[in-house]
Specification:
Chain lengths: ~80, ~230
């Protein structure tokens, strides 16, 4: 079975995000004065081939913990679905 | 004694370190390829600066899984001396050999200039030739040197700060902190005292003709520490 995992990695609350701050001020310059906060993150799409969904989910979690996020500064969330061809 | 400089794909300060150690200080030095699982009997391992794996994902995040790092981790856990400079420091935090993480600089810019550092602790193998509170001039060149540590670990980590950013007079404060790092930290040491990570580049300040020779004492300290240990 083929599965597609969609992972979003974001900075934990309180971790400084200079990209977010810079983007916010650019939005202000473009007259989007209503913008209070911008937070940046990372998005990954991972296609994997495994026997079943629970295996795929377990492997995807492993990837998030080990490489895709740094637990000191980041947290992650994911969705996983079977790919229909 | 023998130094080993790890070469990752994208390291670019490896030859500077090699030059300082082998040519300026005349100590035996070898390169260690990132794919090797052998530290060639070195007594001190240097993880040099650069952009290992293009800083993809996070600086140091991929380099920490290269084969050589298994051995470096083992070596550090057994008390071996390890220095991570700039990207090398980032690799050490990603690998969990040193605590914390290095975030993008406060002002979002790459900074390349000389800075002043205050030596906070000279009771380490890397700083024994400095005096406590001494102000030294060593350049930085980084985009992600903003040292961050989880609030729960801060009390412990305060004792691990070896260098702080300061003024030329030794005054520590946020206006002298180039990147926003916690506690104005420029370099920290492991709890056991055998692993040093620092953002400034001592290898770029090892000859007076380059504007400062203060950095060479980091390496000379290691050599002296090793010689003294040998005779004990």
């Amino acid at each position: 079975m083929k599965y597609r995992g969609k992972v979003i990695v974001t900075l934990k609350p309180g971790v400084f995000d200079p990209q977010g701050v810079t983007i916010r001020s650019a939005l202000h310059t473009l007259s989007y004065r209503e913008v209070e906060e911008v937070k940046t993150g990372k998005y990954f799409e991972i296609v994997l081939e495994l026997e079943n969904l629970s295996q795929a989910e377990k492997r995807l979690q492993g990837m998030c913990d080990q490489l895709l996020s740094n637990p000191v500064i980041e947290s992650y969330s994911y969705q996983i679905e079977e790919m229909k061809d | 004694m023998k130094f080993g400089i790890v070469v990752f794909p994208g390291s670019n300060c490896d030859y500077d370190c090699y030059h300082v150690l082998s040519q300026v200080l005349g100590v035996e030095t070898v390169f260690i390829w990132y794919g090797d699982r052998n530290l060639k009997d070195c007594d001190c391992i240097v993880l040099p600066g650069g952009f290992s794996y293009g800083d993809y994902l996070r600086a140091g995040a991929i380099a920490r899984f290269s084969p050589v790092m298994e051995k470096v981790k083992e070596f550090a856990e057994n008390g071996g001396l390890v220095i991570g400079i700039c990207n090398g420091f980032q690799v050490l935090t990603e690998a969990g050999i040193l605590p914390g993480a290095l975030l993008p600089n406060r002002d979002g810019r790459f900074i390349c200039r000389h800075v002043y550092l205050r030596v906070e602790n000279n009771q380490t193998p890397f700083t024994l030739l400095f005096t406590p509170g001494e102000v030294v001039k060593i350049p930085i060149a980084h985009q992600q040197g903003n040292f961050f540590i989880d609030p729960l670990c801060q009390e412990e980590a305060k004792k691990q700060v070896v260098f702080r950013y300061c003024s030329s007079e030794g005054e520590v404060g946020s206006r002298y902190n180039p990147n926003g790092s916690w506690e104005n930290a420029a370099g920290i040491i492991s709890r056991e005292g055998n692993v040093l990570g620092m953002m400034p580049h001592p290898e770029r300040a090892a000859e007076a003709i380059l504007g400062s020779a203060d950095g060479r004492r980091v390496f000379l300290s290691v050599i002296k520490w090793w010689e003294e240990k040998k005779w004990k």
